[in-house]
Amino acid sequence: MELKQQFEQAAAESKMLPEKPSNDTLLQLYSLYKQSTEGDNTTDPPSNPFDFVAKAKYEAWLGIKGKTKEVAMQEYINLVNKLKVN
Fold first, then answer.
1. Using CB atoms within 10 A as the burial measure, which of 15, 24, 28, 55 is most buried?
2. Domains of the chain
């Protein structure tokens, strides 16, 4: 199975994990997913300073800037597989 297919399968499986991941892990999943599908974060920062969720997501994605889509996909797959086991 090629990487893109494995990634798409992991994305589907991430919605059916046995336990809800911690907020930090959810941010990691989010940022790896965005990096895998869109590349580097080129969006504007959230305009509402009190929208802490949007700010956390923005910063998490920005924090992995420069990571290739392929590396992000593999890390996403590895993380989902780890979460399925735990």
1. 28
2. 3-17+24-85 (1.20.80.10)
